[in-house]
Amino acid sequence: MPKAIKKDTELIREYHTWLRLERGYSLHTVEGYEMDLDKLRSYAEEHGMDIVHMSFEQLEEFVFEQFKTIKSEATQARILAGVHSWFRFLLYKDYIDQDPSELLEGPRKSRHLPTVLSLEEVNRMMAAIDLSSNEGHRNRAMMEMLYGSGLRVSELVNLQLSKIYLDEHYMLIEGKGSKQRLVPLSPVSEEWFGYWLQERSTWPLKAESKDIAFVNRYGRPMTRAMVFTIVRRLCESAGITKTVSPHTLRHSFATHLLQNGADLRVIQQLLGHEELTTTEIYTHVDIQDLRKAILQCHPANKDNR
Questions:
Q1: In the chain, N or C terminus with fewer CB closer than 10 Å?
Q2: How far is residue 45's CA from residue 294's CA, in Å, rounded to a whole number?
Q3: How far apart are CA 237 and CA 129, in angstroms?
């Protein structure tokens, strides 16, 4: 028997808490879901519907209306995810006894192979860092962390000193959905991070930055935008014309591991992916690697025929 329905404002407040605490979503993800719920509420009010007791047919009409003006597959998929999330919450909290969005379908999000840097391009990018500048050792340490451990940019800027265990050669990383994972530190990353720690001790630090690994010149935590800018400028200096972001170094980390024989499930764990299929799209191999695999491993190309 479904529970009595609260007022919309109370229900949405409870939904926010469920997303943050029980689902463990980031504030950015929660804001996206709440924007999608606002669209659903506006549509429901305009058509005299109740957002709790909408039928499958009504939701189909809502999705159809949204997709008429929104052509981006990614945005369409996000709106659909928001609808599913809302009704999963209502079902989980016993406000409804059946999820009307369960069979609701939308476009399958296209998967594109990510941009990857070659090892030579990574080396050029590292060499483009001006180590004589005030931020030189910090920037090199950050780039080595992104490429050497496959961190997301959000994980990098939120990295805490107290979660870096140099003697044990690993870091405790908090990823998406507040999920934690242990990530090994490469000897090169450790070396450059050590140089940065010496430099960091001479920088003025704000109170909120005492345990933050990477800070800006004013002693405040680095932002995602700052790291994007640093990566873009380094690529320009290195003569790299590809469209590169901090995530490109993560793609490159995974791809280079795969190309050199690492197991896909090991890479999955290092990247913090829940699904192996996600890892597969991040770690594509080029046609020469595929050809080499056929020549070396297929029995038709061996001398035992």
A1: N
A2: 60
A3: 9
Residue 293's CB is within 10 A of a number of other CB atoms, namely: 11
CA separation for the pair 42, 288 (Å, rounded) = 52
Length of the chain: 305
What six digits make up the tokens of 14? 């409870």
Residue 222, classed as helix, strand or coil, is: coil
Instruction: Judge whether 192 and 144 are in contact, CB under 8 Å.
Output: yes
- CA-nearest of 34, 114, 125, 138 to 82 is 34
Reference 81, options 36, 38, 112; nearest CA is 36
User: What secondary structure does DSSP assign to 278-293, as a single string?
Assistant: HHHHHS---HHHHHHH
Residues 233, 239: Cα–Cα separation, whole Å:
10
Catalytic residues: 152, 176, 247, 250, 273, 282
The CA distances from residue 150 to 99, 142, 156, 185, 210, in Å, are 38, 11, 10, 10, 24
**CA–CA dist 271, 43 (Å, integer):** 39
Mean pLDDT by 10 residues, the chain (305 residues): 63 90 86 90 90 89 84 81 91 90 69 80 96 95 94 92 93 83 91 96 92 95 92 95 91 87 84 72 52 61 53
φ, ψ of residue 181 to 5 degrees: the values are -150, 155
Q: Rounded CA gap, 197 and 178, in Å?
A: 26
**Interior/surface letters 148-171, b for 16+ CB within 10 angstroms, e for the rest:** bbbbbbbbbbbbeeebbeeeeebb
Q: What's the pLDDT score for residue 4?
A: 53
Q: How many CB atoms lie within 10 A of CB 233?
A: 13
Tell me what pLDDT residue 178 has. Answer: 74
pLDDT for the residue 75 = 82
